[in-house]
Amino acid sequence: MGYATSPLPGQPAFGAVVTGLGSADIGDLAVAASLRELWVEAGVIVFRGLEQSRAMHVRLSRIFGTLINHEVIRDTPGQDPEVMDIVWTGEQEVYVVDGEERAAWLPWHSDLMYAVEINRGGILRPLKLPVHGGGDTGFIDRVTAWDKLPEDLKARIEGLSVIYASH
After folding, report:
1. pLDDT value at position 159?
2. Who wins on pLDDT, 144 or 119?
3. CB 47, CB 60: distance < 8 Å
């Protein structure tokens, strides 16, 4: 295999770190299959040392499935609909979270919840992390979260549906 894996630090229940993956590895069908398998097993993969380019980001993303254009940017002139850039320009609203100011901050959410097809994942590619907070990003394993719910709560909500819509 063209890469190595290690556990995600501080996350004993899930996650993996991939190092040593190169551009040539992305086109290898066996590597692609093993990365998909790792993703299913680990739930979250952090890629370290990978070439930092938009093209590499899209190539890596395609290993995991067909890309879904994000509705927020689909009709934005000049914006690649396959990659959503979140950039701090100094003009966005600043939020206070746990007593700290945050910019370009998103609370807990699920990307593309409103899409017709289930969004199985997303790839984040930070180009510049803030000095304080380091671009903290949290993840949740919804299958494990469901499994840990009390049985009486599962029985009450089993079969309920939610309809999501973008604004």
Report:
1. 93
2. 144
3. yes
